[in-house]
Amino acid sequence: MSTLDRYVAGDISKPLLIFCPALLFLYANFSAIRYLDRVASGLLPADAVLPLVLLSSAIALEILLPIGFHISVVVGLSRLYTDSEMTAFFACGITPMRIFRVVAVVSLLVALLMACLTLYVRPWANGLRYWLEHQAVAEFNFADLKPGHFYENPSGNRVLFFQAIDPDSGRMQQVFIQTISDDTVTIVSADEAFHRPRDDGRGGGFLVCIRARSYDLSPSQDGISQTVSPELVVKLDNPDDVPIGYKRKAASTWQLARSLASPDIAELQWRLSTPVFAFLMGLLGFPLSRARPREGKYAKLFMSALSFAAFYNLQLVAKTWVEQDVVKSIPGLWWPNLLLALLIVGLIWNWPGPAQQRATTPVSRG
């Protein structure tokens, strides 16, 4: 690599060392707030917040790294334009394709890093995150519950709400429980309730409802079945008996490759297309970076962020279509990258030559 190539590559890489950590810091703060809210609600132990924030940040790198790199290419090359260095390059006979080649090499290196993240790091981080969240549910303590919140069980078929806690007995007051079983919805309203642990000390146990009213709603039955009892015992799920189950985001890439399910195909193509997307977004930064002297190196920042958001949302739409079997595996998630590649080719094709660059780009005067 020549001195010029190293110089241009350095101008591209330096903003990345600023933008990517800054985006990662903002995302980590957002994740910490979300997990701390669950800690305040009693759904998560405090010592699980830091590992979950770190894992979430590692997962988010598949988004933050491409956008940080795309903005870095635009800002780095825009500085060369606004400082008239690019004009000097062209005056010395250096072609735009020489600069584009440097951008392509750096983009390829970023794409290889993205491939490692999406194919290996992201599934591992998701698997560990699911395990930590499952452990938090297994160590769930009813004494940590706060009134005025809705609590859903791991199976997702039961919701608990209570309005207050009696300061003397510690029992929950004005309790509401909704349970969905097959096509039947059971609603329990009780004046108060308390948790009764299992005799063997394992998780789960029972929720004893005092002065309870139970309502059963089912499409197969006419009307509502109502039951009133002085004491109603509701069996709670034991988290130890509920496995984490299959999570496609945590599944290995080889496991996804052998699956014929549409959601698995969408997840596999997402992992394979993300490095391609990062590579193409780096290339798109080259034509978007062209700026006039004294225009400012951040002048094209809005356009670069807008272009990234547009094509990233197209990727999400394509993934949803494949998951819902609206679109088959071909074209699958590849058509947004194809549109992006065609846009890059069109912009590069209409790129002015060195002579036009020298003629149309004014030289700044001291």
Can you walk me through this structure?
- By secondary structure, the protein is α+β, with helices and mostly antiparallel strands.
- 54% of the residues lie in helices and 16% in strands.
- It has nine helices and six strands; from the N terminus they run ααααββββββααααα.
- It has helices spanning 3-40, 49-82, 85-91, 96-138, 253-257, 262-288, 301-323, 335-349, 354-360; strands spanning 150-152, 158-165, 172-181, 184-196, 206-217, 225-235.
- It has a six-stranded antiparallel beta sheet with strand order 1-2-3-4-5-6, with no helix packed on it.
Number of strands: 6
Oligomer: single chain
Strand % is: 15-25%
Secondary structure: helix percent: 40-55%
Q: From N to C, what is the helix and strand string? A: HHHHEEEEEEHHHHH
Strand order, sheet with most strands: 1-2-3-4-5-6
* CA radius of gyration: 28 Å
- Strand-pairing-aware structural class: alpha+beta
**Span between N and C termini?**
33 Å
- The overall pLDDT, averaged over residues, is 83
Number of helices: 9
Poorly predicted regions are 355-366
Shape: elongated
Question: Can you give me a brief rundown of this structure?
Answer:
The protein is α+β, with helices and mostly antiparallel strands and 366 residues long.
How do the helices and strands line up, and which of them pair or pack?
Blueprint: H1 3-40, H2 49-82, H3 85-91, H4 96-138, E1 150-152, E2 158-165, E3 172-181, E4 184-196, E5 206-217, E6 225-235, H5 253-257, H6 262-288, H7 301-323, H8 335-349, H9 354-360
Helix pairs in contact: 1-2, 1-4, 2-4, 2-6, 2-7, 4-6, 6-7, 6-8, 7-8
